[in-house]
Prior knowledge:
- The protein is of the alpha+beta class and about 80 residues long.
- The protein has one helix at about 65-80; strands at about 1-10, 15-25, 30-35, 40-45, 50-55.
- The protein has a 5-stranded antiparallel beta sheet.
Amino acid sequence: MEHYFDLPVSLNGEEHNFKGRLVTFGYVYKFYIVIEGKEYIFEKDDEQQYRVLSENQKEKKVVDPDLIAAIIDSLNVLSK
């Protein structure tokens, strides 16, 4: 099952919105967030911390780590 949403993220005093979707697989769920035209998968690891996966492993472009951290903060608020 999929649910589409806009994710508000605060970074450096500015508010950004990212398109996303929540996909559930039984008891597991993943957030698919579009960053700069590419979709990244945010899922919880064994310690219940978010990790980020990219579907295109050959992609050389690096996303700003502060942006990733801000997105994870927003997802933590949503998933409480």
